[in-house]
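Minutes, project check-in
Item: structure for the 259-residue chain
Input as provided by the requester:
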Amino acid sequence: MHRANFLWLDFRQDASTSGLFYSLAPSCDAHILPHPCDPSSDIDTWRPHFLCFEFDTPLSSDLIVLGQTRLRHPDLPLLMITEGHSEPLAVWAFRSGVWDYLVKPLATDELDTCIASLCRFCLERKRTGPLIPWSSPSSVFTQSSGDGSRVYKTLSAREFVKTHFAETIRLSVVAAHCHMSESEFSRVFKKEHGHTFYEHLLKFRIGRACELLADASVQVKSVAFAVGFNDLSYFARTFRRYTGVTPSTYQQARAANGL
């Protein structure tokens, strides 16, 4: 059975203690790169399925490396683990499109579950073909043909979300927009993008909410309705799920930091 392989980039400033890499269950092939490092050459050498960045307190220079790595290798999912958590950092990670953002202290079984899930996804992606690059969700792909190009059958669903996210979006409508049944659409969308359509919709709405909350004068309730939520408490729970903070706390932090 094939095993996923990945690179673990240890960007912790404190080298006196062991990082989380050494607590991983032996479910995949992993290689650790100590700090400081430039992962580009190692990515070319190991050709990993995904990357994991571990931080204690991230430095701006370290985050630049993570950002540059995504630009150079947009098809590689990135897992970010940090001890120095803050509202702006969580939002930055979310909007940068990292696969997941985990905060230490972190239970071993939680980390193993996350790694195992990412391994399964990467192996499935390898079996079915390349997916849309993480940093280019709106990229346009062409229909499968003799030249080896490939269509992503649910790409139009992502475009549909961009123009209808503030409305009630029914799965049956989106599936019909892609000329599929609901069950086929759900299966194909998850295969092509690595997550469900509903998860994509929520992430998109929260991303737009973050943009609107940059205005300190706007009401949280107004933002919730503007991005498609009819229940304010559900909006608050969902926002916190993705950013780690409540909408009001996020808005206050943006204002306090002049962001």
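Outcome recorded: The first strand starts at residue 5 and ends at 10.
No further action items on this chain.
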